[in-house]
Design brief:
This protein is an alpha/beta fold. 42% of the residues lie in helices and 21% in strands.
Length: 225
């Protein structure tokens, strides 16, 4: 699952990001309302997690603007304000769920799973497609030309990252930050190994190759030769 977390408390944000990534999710962060709104408008996420009180732009205003623009991504609102009126305001603004602080990671993760399932039942927003390669982020399923492809958790995350950047050249640094959460190059061949395994899984036996190495730059997933 790809999650956007907008939380200005950096300590709380890092704790939550660490826990969610350990559960296999891909998490992107923003630390103020304006940055969070831009990310939500330009990115593709399975679930948005918004703090209620944010600098520059209030969490409820983010919800209102996204809904007014037609964005239907599930939204979970986090807040230290637990009064009934506050919860009602959050839900009426367009939020799908409301969780008061302090919370347990297990409950938050369960609520995110429930929101993702609900969205999956409502439509195919969690599905990605490149040529005849399909990935369902909620069902954790990958097929090519109708044939099921078995991937490890890390291979699945890597493929999802590449498919969300279809046609773009992604660098090693981008992959380390987006999939492994490293913000530096640890001088390891872990990316090369996983790219090689992923290429074998999705391209071997097919006439059209989708995963390409761009020498000196990175990698790209595209149906164009």
């Amino acid at each position: 699952m790809k999650i956007l977390l907008v939380e200005d408390d950096r300590r709380a944000s890092e704790f939550l990001v660490k826990g969610l990534r350990e559960l296999g999710h891909v998490v992107e962060q923003a630390f103020d309302g304006e940055t969070g709104l831009r990310a939500a408008e330009t990115g593709v996420y399975d679930v948005l997690v918004l703090d209620r009180m944010l600098p520059k732009l209030d969490g409820l205003e983010i919800v209102r603007q996204l809904r007014a623009a037609g964005n239907t991504s599930p939204i979970l609102i986090l807040s230290a304000l637990d009064e009934v009126d506050e919860r009602v305001q959050g839900l009426r603004a367009g939020g799908d769920d409301y969780l008061a602080k302090p919370y347990h990671l297990e409950e938050l993760a369960a609520r995110l799973d429930a929101l993702a399932r609900r969205q999956s039942e409502a439509g195919p927003a969690g599905k990605l497609r490149v040529c005849d390669l399909e990935l369902d982020s909620r069902a954790r399923k990958v097929t090519r030309a109708g044939r099921k492809i078995d991937l490890t958790t890390r291979e699945f995350q890597l493929l999802e990252f590449l498919m969300r950047h279809t046609g773009q050249v992604v660098t090693r640094t981008m992959i380390l930050e987006g999939v492994w959460d490293y913000h530096f190059d640890p001088k390891t061949n872990v990316i090369d190994v996983h790219i090689s395994r992923l290429r074998q899984a999705i391209d071997k036996g097919f006439e059209r190759q989708l995963l390409h190495t761009v020498r000196g730059a990175g990698y790209t997933l595209t149906e164009d030769p």
